[in-house]
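The aim of this short unit is practical: by the end, you should be able to scan a pair of folded records and say something sensible about each. We start with the first protein, listed as its amino acid sequence and then its structure tokens.
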Amino acid sequence: MTTAPTASASPETVNAVVIERAATGYALFDCNGIPILPGDTVKVFHYVAAVRREKRYMYKFVLAVESRAEGKPPLMKLSHLNLKDEWYWVLMDGRRLESYEIVQGYGGVPSGNDYRDRERQKHNSD
């Protein structure tokens, strides 16, 4: 499996990594079909407030992708962005996470490109 692109990676390299991960099923996508990579900040739906019925969100930061034993999908490590060093794992099995949305993209994409330029996953209804 290919590692995450470096800060000097070209847009073609970033898309190649994204396409390779999607083809093997080792990827996660946000609600817009954009692949989630280490360095992304994602907005996650939390609950609907009782008083004004407003949606509340949590923000998470993607720290890393950890590979596991042969044949097992890797895990994505997400930080809770709190004062403690706490995180949780999400299995990278090719799902589209409907309650996740990228709000700030991967910092390693060269200047002039951002997370919106990544190859998107086709939705079942597309």
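Turning to the second protein, read its sequence before its tokens, just as you did above.
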Amino acid sequence: MSIAKALFDQSIISTDECFGQPDVTSQEMRTAINAWRDTYLKREGDKTSDPCMRMAYVIVHKLQKGVFAEYSSDILDKEKTAKGKWMNRNLSQLDLIRDSILQWMLIGGECWVKPIPRPGPDGSTIFAPLLVHRTDAVILAREPDGRVTSIVTAEHTARGSQYYTLLERRTVDANGYLTIENKLYASFDRGTLGVRTALSKLDRYAQLPDLYTYPVPVGGVGMTPLRVPLANCVDGSMDAISIYEPAMGLIRNIDQNEKQLNDEFELAGEGAEGGLRPARCRFFQARLPGGCRPGPASERGGAENVPHRPGHGAFAAGLRLCPRPRCGPDVLLRRLDRPL
């Protein structure tokens, strides 16, 4: 289990232990967020489903491709003024990860972009954006309008045989003053948070204070939030949801149907080799003479000998030799787009 997943699932260490404050996200939402990520990353099938259609990826990719087909960013006075040139350098840094930002926002429902100050080529300070995934964040306080006022984020670094995790809590008070608290943990195991260590252990964190409050009001947690504009249909809270959360049931059914089709065609092939065919097709639910169809090949260790009967069934030779109907992701998405 990764450190990020362990922190988010609270199975190794919780924010209560680190900062004395619990996660306000409900258990239903935490389960859903993990399911969105797992659905997007799932590549291998199991006994009940086959994710070969990769529907979550298809949905996210089509939206991401459509957004940036019509989008371009530019600074009009980038060649005329020093401010325009500085803004253009910052925008160029943001454009490098814009695809990742949009995709992970669609997957997790919400993500954040953290500005990291870096020295520019001319000595000025520019901001390199750092993407914070939903599973790398624990929300400690959220306003009724959905605005986050306290959040813990995790940053991960590998150095040799050690793994470091920076936990950063950002809290904004009622007057807009932002306080940032930093804690660094070190471990020899990627799956555990480890023990707290000095920030100076890593050069990139050596200048960070343990606790710092900005002297002027910031008005937020100092990160740019990006949210999917859908009403929460998981628990009704102000937490954002994945773009494909409303279709999660459909995606699961498609994966299960693919597994069923694979089992049926496997049975058909075994029956054809022995001059036999199964007596019932589970997927089409068509009873044929001879009784019920045996279970999948993985459960019974081979095709069951069922005498061939006249007539056409789900596994008739003509049907087996015909190409399967085209029912790929594009066809399914077009069907979903049809008006009711």
